[in-house]
Write a structure and sequence with these properties.
- The protein is α+β, with helices and mostly antiparallel strands.
- The protein has a single domain, classed as Alpha-Beta Plaits (2-Layer Sandwich).
- 32% of the residues lie in helices and 24% in strands.
- The chain contains four helices and four strands, in the order E-H-E-E-H-H-E-H.
- Strands 2-3-1-4 form a four-stranded antiparallel β-sheet.
- It starts with a strand and ends in a 25-residue tail after the last helix.
Length: 129
């Protein structure tokens, strides 16, 4: 899996309502997109930033999506050119009902109070916590 941070840094032209409208309108384009596991549209009014975070199944899918032509179009839409940063995802926790259902057969869901049961057994002579 690969993650991608796409960050838009604004000056005085930051408009939270416009950014929210862009996100609401664009959402449908990403639902069910092959190779894309999830996307979050975020904003931080205090820093005058909007950031989108993508989780892709593969680096190839992510890099194919973020072609120069797309970045130019997005820069026009947001009125500022974004920075794009690719990161490796070590592990991902998904708590949606769909994710839990698809994983239920593979591994049981572990409640926080049962973490102690995941600890390996103590060796002879060691105290158990």
């Amino acid at each position: 899996m690969i993650g991608v941070f796409v960050t838009f840094r604004y000056g005085d032209n930051f408009d939270e309502q416009t950014i929210r409208k862009i996100a609401e309108t664009a959402r449908q384009r990403f639902e069910g997109m092959p190779g894309l596991r999830s996307k979050a549209f975020t904003l931080n009014a205090g820093k005058r930033e909007a950031a989108n975070f993508y989780v892709w199944d593969s680096e190839d899918a992510a890099k194919a999506f973020f072609a120069d032509q797309l970045l130019e179009r997005v820069a026009g839409l947001y009125s500022v050119r974004p920075t794009v940063e690719f990161v490796q995802i070590a592990t991902l926790v998904e708590n949606t009902a769909t994710a839990r259902r698809s994983q239920d057969d593979a591994q049981p869901v572990v409640a926080p109070d049962s973490y102690d049961r995941l600890r390996p057994p103590a060796r002879t002579g060691e105290l158990q916590r």
